[in-house]
Every structure is written in structure tokens, then in C-alpha cells.
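Researcher: Quick test of sequence recovery. C-alpha cells follow.
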């Protein structure tokens, strides 16, 4: 899905067809994307963390993408995992639609600003900020069971 979407966007913009060597890295099989999707979808929805949190470092390593490319690439599969996961949780009656609508609307307002700001940062700064975010989120994810209200 990601490769198809990327090629479609490139065609619309009149760019060359994407290949896995576009960053100068070694040729990578598109089949490597399958286990990444399994990991992001399965683990991400099971433990309640965003698939992009897993996909960004994995696409950096597996595909040799630059930080900005990895951030951007992780967003599209995240849409698919979020929609399908939310549908399952909705069917079980576990979605708080008011909270979801409030978070989604405020996130939608700031997402474009964040993406534009990322384009103005140097690669090293992007990596440092991503690493800092991962370091900050790690303990929060580990403490999640203790921070949740029982109910």
C-alpha cells in the first residue's frame, strides 16, 4: 500500500518513480515492508502505542531513509492501522468518541505546522529530537499500567 501511494503521489507531482535506492542505500526488497506492517499493526494496537513510534526507527534502519522521510513514510501506514484498530475497539464499545474527537481535532490543527517545521530542521536536529521523544515516551509507556485509572 505504501509503495503504491508513494508512486501515485510521485506521478501526480511529475517525479520519477520511487525506488528503494533513492536515498543512496542498498537495494531493499519491498517484501521487507510486510514484517514492518505486522509489527506496527499488531504490537502497536496491542499495547496502545502508535505504529509510527515503531515504524520510524525501523524504516530508518531497514530502508536507510533520512529522518524526515522516515517520519513522513510512517504516517500513511499509521492511518490504516488506526482506522482498522479503532473499528475493532469501537465494535467492543471501547472508544470514547468525545475524547477521540477532541484529540483528533486539536491534532489536525497542529499537524501541518509540525510537518512544515520538520522541513526547516537539519537532519541531525531531527534525529536528536526524535531520540529525545523516544527517551521521554519510553518511561511513560512502561508506567502506563500504573497511571491508568481502574474502572
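Model:
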Amino acid at each position: 500500500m505504501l509503495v503504491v501511494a508513494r508512486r501515485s503521489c510521485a506521478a501526480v507531482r511529475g517525479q520519477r518513480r520511487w525506488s528503494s535506492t533513492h536515498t543512496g542505500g542498498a537495494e531493499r526488497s519491498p517484501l521487507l515492508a510486510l514484517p514492518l506492517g505486522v509489527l506496527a499493526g499488531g504490537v502497536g494496537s496491542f499495547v496502545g502505542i502508535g505504529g509510527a513510534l515503531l515504524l520510524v526507527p525501523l524504516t530508518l534502519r531497514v530502508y536507510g531513509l533520512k529522518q524526515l522521510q522516515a517520519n513522513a513514510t510512517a504516517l500513511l501506514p499509521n492511518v490504516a492501522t488506526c482506522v482498522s484498530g479503532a473499528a475493532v475497539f469501537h465494535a467492543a464499545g471501547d472508544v470514547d468518541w468525545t475524547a477521540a474527537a477532541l484529540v483528533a481535532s486539536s491534532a489536525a490543527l497542529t499537524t501541518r505546522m509540525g510537518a512544515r517545521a520538520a522541513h526547516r530542521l537539519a537532519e541531525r536536529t531531527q534525529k536528536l529530537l526524535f531520540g529525545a521523544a523516544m527517551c521521554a515516551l519510553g518511561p511513560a509507556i512502561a508506567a502506563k499500567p500504573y497511571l491508568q485509572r481502574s474502572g
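Confidence is low (pLDDT under 50) at residues 1-26.
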